[in-house]
Amino acid sequence: MFVSCTPKQITYLLPNKQIENGTSSRDLFYCTKENLEWRDPFKSKEASADHYYEIGLSVKQMYDLLASRSNNRIQILLTEEQQQAFNTHFRPLLPEQVGLYGVDFAAFVVRIALVAFRMMMVLTMLRNFENGLLADTQQQAFVCTDADFKTAMTIIDCLVRHTAYVYTTLLRPTDDPQLTIQPMKAKEQQLYLALPDEFTTKQFVQTANALGIPLKSAQRYLGHLISRYQLVEHISHGHYKKKK
Q: What pairing do the DSSP bridges indicate for beta strands 232-236 and 141-143?
């Protein structure tokens, strides 16, 4: 299900009490900036109904081919290199995100990893349908291509950051509304000033060690810099930059 809404409407869809029961961890989020540019409502546009109708016919054809397999199950396989890359990506991501946003966010990371594989399954079916390989009902195993693997992982890497933003700013609002506009703590400010404009997780750990800040505390401070003070942006896995 695809749902679009304004940021504050998310709290009506996913109340705080649902964070721990697994409901919210089954959702993915993508946030867009508000577009304040005026659009000409009279500008002519080409009719898109026919275009989407043709796409619908193709999707229906693919569905019929899959449904005709009856009990012939389909297996989507990843190569050994892809499996290794999958684990290499998510293994450090889990403790990193938990360190930033707390143990409750672990469920989000695990669900996102599952969604990544589901995306690979969909992309694999689309590619084999386009290549005319779904008509062979005897073929049950399909290998994900490197291109589709990378596409799914790129999308997921982006959605992790957007989901973390929603989780920290909307699903887990602070109890004290004034807390977000209070000055940073001395240690948080010290850590922020010591970090370069762009830094990696390794550089972050080295900076925290040099300042004598325990790792767990430093991770919590970094989480505050990202979500509470919005001074740092998590641009990709293990990479951050200060906002201008």
A: unpaired
Pair 162, 99: CB distance under 8 Å: no
Evaluated on CA atoms 217, 223, 227, 231, the torsion sign reads: positive
Half-sphere exposure of 134 (CA within 13 A, CB side): 23
How does pLDDT run across 89-146, given as a tens digit for each residue?
998 888 888 877 777 778 888 888 999 999 999 999 999 999 988 888 788 899 999 9
- Given a contact cutoff of 8 angstroms between Cβ atoms, the answer to whether 124 and 144 are in contact is yes
Quick: pLDDT tens for 146-190. Answer: 999 999 999 998 888 888 888 777 665 554 444 445 677 888 889
Q: Which two tokens stand for residue 118?
A: 């589901």
Of 70, 72, 77, 78, the closest CA to residue 138 belongs to 72
From CA 125, how far away is CA 15, in angstroms rounded?
A: 35
Give the number of C-alpha atoms closer than 13 A to the C-alpha of residue 176, restricted to the C-beta side: 6
Domains of the chain, start order: 9-32+55-173 (no CATH), 176-244 (1.10.10)
Give the list of residues 6+ apart from residue 118 with CB closer than 8 angstroms, or none. Answer: none
Question: How far is the C-alpha of 111 from the C-alpha of 179, rounded, in Å?
Answer: 30
* Helix, strand and coil percent figures for the chain, each rounded to 5: 60, 5, 35
For residues 81 and 83, what is the distance between their CA atoms, to the nearest angstrom? 5
